[in-house]
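Continuing the batch. This is chain 6 of the set; chains 1 through 5 are on the previous pages. Same settings as before, nothing changed between runs. Recording input and output for traceability.
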Amino acid sequence: QGQLVESGGGSVQAGGSLRLSCVASGNIFKVNAMAWYRQTPGRQRELVAAVTSGGDTNYADFVKGRFTISRNNARYTVSLQMHNLKPEDTAVYYCNAFPPYRIVNEIWGQGTQVTVSS
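Output for chain 6:
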C-alpha cells in the first residue's frame, strides 16, 4: 500500500542544526518527486522542500538558504538538512511524495517532531 517512516527530529536551540531522514516504500518513492512538509497545531500542513527523481530541488521561501533536501534513489530515502533553525521552525515534519501519495485517501507517516527554543 505504501509506507513512510520519518526520523531525526529533536529539540535544539535557535541557530542549531538537525538532519531529518525518511524511508519510503518503493511504490511511493520510485515514480514521484519527494518532499518534506510540516504542520503545527491548528494550521494546515505546508510544503517545506521538494526534490525530483533527477535531483532538482525547490524550497519554500521561509527555508531557502537554511535547509537542503536530498534523496538516495538506491535506498528510497529522502533527507532534510536543517541549519540556522528558528523557533518558528517548530513543527511536526513529514515526508511524502509531491504531490502527497494517495490511494483513496492521502497516506502519511507518523512524522518527526522538531522543537526549536529561543
